[in-house]
């Protein structure tokens, strides 16, 4: 099994204001991306016809870590949608002189590889290639030593995920649907933050599945071929 799963969390005001966009460029490359109204595709997740898929996690820094005049992270993720392969995607992330960092989960269905990359301003980065052990990333840096907000929600979600094991896709979706910590659940239902949807990238089946509602129920809205 080779999968990457992600909860797309956002302000509750975003409900009903997101779109699944499919684009075919003049060079024949096509991509599909989950996009918010008025924003570039995508600050959430997407994939292209070269078999490259990604999900994203915000990792808010403290003000001293922000580089004035740097490149906004949404421009980087838009550029990712034109990646030719995993190495090209990796280089596109690292070549940008970003204003703030981000966390990228990159998947290549052709090479069956998944990378988790943390970036920060001033050309700092760290990455980890996924192996047989499960890996969970919330909205705080894990590998880079960065001045960052001590976000209680991320701390509690990271702690809760570490208590659970994943052997199957069903168990992965169950973690993302977990509400055991009522104050800071992994699956959010307001009053401010809300899990808008859940996505599962299956590298063996070469599909991206989107779930609305708690993914524990396993009710898919879309199953899209990554090609």
Top keywords for this entry?
alpha+beta, seven-stranded antiparallel sheet, 11 strands, Penicillin V Acylase, Chain A, four-stranded antiparallel sheet, 4 helices, 227 residues
How does this structure look, described?
The protein has four helices and eleven strands. The chain is of the alpha+beta class and 227 residues long. The chain has a single domain, classed as Penicillin V Acylase, Chain A (4-Layer Sandwich). The longest helix has 11 residues. The protein starts with a strand and ends with a strand.
Give the SSE layout.
Blueprint (H helix, E strand, L loop, with lengths): L2 E9 L6 E7 L5 E7 L8 E4 L3 E6 L15 H8 L5 H10 L7 E6 L4 E8 L3 E6 L22 H11 L6 H8 L16 E10 L4 E5 L8 E6 L2
Antiparallel strand pairs: 1-9, 2-3, 3-4, 4-5, 5-6, 6-7, 7-8, 9-10, 10-11
Pfam families: AAT (PF03417)
Organism: Dendrobium chrysotoxum (Orchid)
Protein name: Peptidase C45 hydrolase domain-containing protein
Total helix count? 4
**DSSP strand content:** 25-35%
CATH class: Alpha Beta
Radius of gyration: 17 Å
Remind me, CATH topology?
Penicillin V Acylase, Chain A
Shape: globular
Reading side by side through the largest sheet, how are the strands ordered? 2-3-4-5-6-7-8
- Along the chain, the helix and strand elements come as EEEEEHHEEEHHEEE
